[in-house]
What we know:
alpha/beta; Spo0b-associated Gtp-binding Protein, Chain: A; Rossmann fold; GMP Synthetase, Chain A, domain 3; 19 strands; elongated
Amino acid sequence: MIDSVSIQITSGSGGDGAISGRHEKFVPRGGPDGGDGGRGGNVIIKGDHNENTLINFRYLKNFVAGNGKNGSKAKKHGKDGEDTIIKVPLGTQIMDEAGSVVADIVVSGEEYIAAAGGRGGYGNVKYSSSTSQYPVIAQSGELGSEHSLRLELKLIADVGIIGVPNAGKSSLISFLTAARPKVASYPFTTIEPVLGLVEHREKDFVMVDIPGLIEGAHQGIGLGHEFLRHIERTRVLVHLVDGTSENPRGDFHKINRELELFDESLKDKPQILAINKVDLEEVRILAEDVRDSMGEDAWRFHIISAISGEGVSEMMDEVVQVLSEQPTLNRRKLPEEPGEENIPILRPQPRRRGVSVHQEDGVYIVEAPGVERIAQRIDYEDWLARMQFYKHMQKTGIVKALEEAGITEGDTVRIGDVEWEWD
Length: 423
């Protein structure tokens, strides 16, 4: 199972605002009518209950959203860029470059905007005023953003079946559900988790067969990390012990030790102990001795056969009872009718706003994202454009911030990629 992948995502850049004037009698230069640029497309990660693994990301690792179109004359707004939607299974955690979990997708239809598209630039019509009736300034579109993310799948299941290799876990999930994992009489037949839907006593829940764990699993031995992470989201564990083992109690404690070493909180997860293979005469004869050997661990104890089904119904009665006592998982499907349910949309932290000025190597550097995008569009050979840009800097507080920072005539100012001499 592919349950941990890295992807690269890039949101779309916003379109540029237009500098344009309409042709109208008695209106200076026809009046401004430059439209705004369109928004860049978002990269959205969306939960989908039809997805089960991250295998689609084995080769498809780069996702790019569309750019917004430029604004045009007659106040026409540029078309927004196309969003890119990445569908993932429920239980997918999204981690940033630092390894921090930024989103946890557990609801079908839930969306996380992993990379927001750049804002469209304002057209010149937005900068008209009583003193500037035909502005020749406009805003370039905001650039999209690029991120490296890690997706990690932790299956969402109500009940997990755990145990040493060849304990009969695959046989049990085959008996209880429509799942059909490979079943054979040798260890490590199952090499990836298998999900199945169980219906018992008018209750239904999801069960997962966790591949056999071995000593050192908490250190990643035998793909231990890949298997153990799927146990974290289960509510109840069925601990299956091989009745033909020479040391059933030792097997039981070995697995629990691996759980605790991987994540100490797993030791508190409710467990139902089942000795399997009672269909074999040798196990039937020794079953009560095995029960006695388990001591205080046998308080939720069942003797079963995953092949014949003996004792399984009684065990599942207790599973249903214990499940009813546990908090439910936040797992839902999309609403049947529009508006029936509000599906959450998770958004990243808003981008920085405001104005700041600092000096670096004798240059006054202005940080003001919206104004930076105007600076990119200015024709600095055009005196009118420079004067309108200066008035906009006054309006937004940049001139005051520069004066408070001690700027004098002849000093160099930098806004974004643009530098000029202050005069």
